[in-house]
Write a structure and sequence with these properties.
globular, alpha/beta, 5 helices, Pathogenesis-related Protein p14a, Allrgn_V5/Tpx1_CS, CAP_sf, signal, five-stranded mixed sheet, SCP domain-containing protein
Length: 244
């Protein structure tokens, strides 16, 4: 099996206890921008889990509901890694150990928080544009690799970086947005979908993007260790996936 990453080139509040503070990194990212990245990812994960995400290829016009979708935490270590990739201005994936989404564009007059929201919405918007359908085994349909990375069930952490100081290339791209993803434990985690240990990073060939079913209504519906159910969001909340 192999893991695939995707590249895109284009001109709900955090749960109690969650933090997006990475002040020790001393870079241009702010906690506000980090929160936008985190919230926008979780909003999409909740939308999909509750069966509210439009999918023109799916039965009934909406993506199947998810029974074990986990609410993401922000990860400062992933931000550090994403920064190293973004600062290369390479317009290509790093091929590293983490799941990864890339957004390259030329922006003028946008604040970083606006860029953050735009990037995640463009990635997740592939669902409505191309459709995935009822078959959730990756790879799904062409052009949806960013979307599947955003809603990959086994992901528990995300960290992102925006570099708006790249030299424009022939296409005029000056800004790069990188988000990286991983499970709670790089050496394997017990996820909400299974009691077995998994050690993949998302967009993994032959794996299910997420488990179909009614979203959680009570804590016992969530299969991960000591997880609680955020019923209004349809997400399982994993207190063990602490921010670093």
């Amino acid at each position: 099996m192999h893991s695939l990453a995707a590249v895109l080139y284009l001109i709900p509040l955090a749960a109690a206890g969650q933090s997006t503070s990475c002040g020790h990194l001393n870079n241009k990212m702010t906690d506000e921008v980090r929160q936008v990245f985190l919230d926008t990812h979780n909003e999409w994960r909740s939308l999909v889990a509750r069966g509210k995400a439009e999918d023109p290829a799916a039965t009934g016009g909406f993506a199947p509901k998810a029974s074990q979708m986990v609410k993401l935490w922000y990860d400062c270590k992933l931000e550090e890694s994403a920064k190293q990739v973004a600062e290369k201005c390479a317009n290509e994936h790093s091929g590293g150990d983490y799941g990864e989404n890339l957004f390259a564009a030329s922006f003028a007059g946008y604040d970083l928080d606006e860029v953050a929201k735009m990037a995640v919405n463009r990635w997740a918007g592939e669902l409505e544009k191309f459709g995935v359908g009822d078959n959730l085994i990756f790879p799904t349909k062409r052009g949806t690799g960013h979307y599947t990375q955003v809603v990959w069930q086994h992901t528990t952490r995300v960290g992102c970086y925006i570099n708006d100081e790249c030299f424009p290339d022939s296409a005029g791209w000056k800004t790069q947005v990188i988000c990286q993803y991983r499970p709670a434990d790089d050496h394997g985690v017990t996820t909400c979908s299974t009691a077995t240990t998994l050690n993949f990073r998302g967009n993994y060939i032959g794996r299910e993007v997420y488990s179909k079913g009614e979203p959680c209504k009570k804590d016992s519906d969530c299969k991960c260790y000591k997880c609680s159910c955020l019923a209004d969001e349809g997400l399982c909340y994993d207190p063990n996936s602490l921010t670093n």
